[in-house]
Structure formats: structure tokens, C-alpha cells
Design goal:
Number of domains: 1
CATH superfamily: NusB-like
Distance between the termini: 44 Å
Structural class: mainly alpha
CATH class: Mainly Alpha
Strand content: under 5%
Largest sheet: none
Number of helices: 6
Shape: globular
Radius of gyration: 14 Å
CATH architecture: Orthogonal Bundle
Number of strands: 0
Helix content: 55-70%
CATH topology: N-utilizing Substance Protein B Homolog, Chain A
Length: 136
Amino acid sequence: MRSLFSPKNNPRVIIIQKLYGNFFNEDEFIVFPKHRFKKFIKDVVSGTIERNEIILDEINNNIGDKFDFNKLDKVFQVILKSAAYELLYKPNLSINIIIKEYLNASNFFLENSQTKYLNALLDVIAKKIRQNNARV
């Protein structure tokens, strides 16, 4: 049962690792591991990279004026970007599932207090993004 909760089996952990490598280590060539969710992982990673500017605009527009995205921890930034991508471009996935999955994945990277802050931010961003997209 333990292997089920391994970071290697969590698609969001792999997404976070690949995006971190691309955004902060400037990995130009991303290799995707053999995984039962490989297509999903590849889609979220590629989509987040391709739509980075749109995603940043969405995050900044939906979080408020006092928020400075660039002052956040780099892993935190990656998690917000990939979650925002899913909220914007994966309308069939529920807000609760996306948030829950990223919070579970964040436990491998962040302290408990950071995870609580992440939960609050994701909640605000999710509601506003989905609300705005419902109007379009």
C-alpha cells in the first residue's frame, strides 16, 4: 500500500517537478516517465509552459493588488501555475479534485503552514477563474 502514496506515482508531483525544471533550471528537453497518466502529465506540463503568460495574468488578476507572485517560493509558484492551468483548461475536473490533488502533492515540497496558505490561495483563484469562465 505504501507505494501507492509514493511521489513517483503522484501525477501532480511529476508535473511540479517537470515544470520546476523548465522554469527555474531551464531544462529545455523534458523527458516524461512511463506512467499510466503520462498523457495527462504531458498535457498539463506542455500547456502550462505554452500558456505561461495567460496563466500569470489570471493568477494576478484573481488574487488582488497586494499579492506579489514573484515573492513566493519557486515551488509554490509552479504549483499555482499548474493548478491554474487545470482550472482554466480542464473544465471537466472539479475544483475540489484539482485543489485536493495539488495539496497532496505539495506535501512532498512544502511545510504544513505553506500548504494551508496554498489551500487558501487555490480556493480564491479556483472560484474566480471558474466563475469568470462560466460567463464567457
